[in-house]
């Protein structure tokens, strides 16, 4: 008994020392694993419930977090983060490239030398090339084989195709949590995971839509239906169509862009040769600006003061404040021109001609600065990366 008590007394100080060491370690050092309360933290983050029986919780068991508030630029300026050279930190190290969908695949071109820097997905019938929300990947929309193909922008490596029926357009909500795929058949918006493109839900549409842009708060996507001469407003959180508006007879709406103050949507109309101004709040047409026959694609200058309207062999510029045409410049070839995006410094607008040309025109004078002839006929053009905090998808949609 005496020896047992003596042994217990000898172990007591050792236990106290061990406890003191643990306390000192916890209080004086950073833990090797981030600690969260049970149910908090992201599903891909290491989670430790203090006092819990296991070091990690099972994926998918975390409590859903409240949705982030709408992402609105400071001062209400829609394009406050898309000025010259304002490329997101994660995309600054990426080489500047032109991605041209020519019906057989994606031709990758160095904009400085106009030499081919690679080719992606030979044989794929690519209709669009869309940057992901974080700009790390490009998504190729193949409407013939009904797939979306991911391509890593830094390496050019192609990923596994994801089934998507007739993916006419691809967009990302400003918070980066949702991808929206515009399907032509059946007519709907597919709500998908932005990274894996796994389907979550779908929103039936009254007409087939492809081109669109988000409202200032990013909660609604306004899309054009060319054959139905209509615009559709999709409530993204509510997953429903919140409104429609029909343009006058004969209109053929195409590309859509939100004005810098967030109050007006400008909609290209190839049939009438100009752009419609649609009130973003009341969703009613507020006028028409005639630019040139065949107006098809839209792009915004780096200073967000001018709207470029391309198509029908002409590039016109419209002043956002006065809503007047300030210049009309002829384009090479005289055919349809597909805008791909404005250069990072804002000095050039890149376009693709359906006759097989890719070229850059001066945003100041309209003079052709560079041009290259391709073997195929371009169906889409994407300039990547471009200034902005994130990509909204589409063609040249950044904020």
UniProtKB/TrEMBL annotation:
Tell me the superkingdom of the source. Bacteria
- Matches recorded under PROSITE patterns: PROKAR_LIPOPROTEIN (PS51257)
Coiled-coil residues are none
Put simply, this protein is called YncE family protein
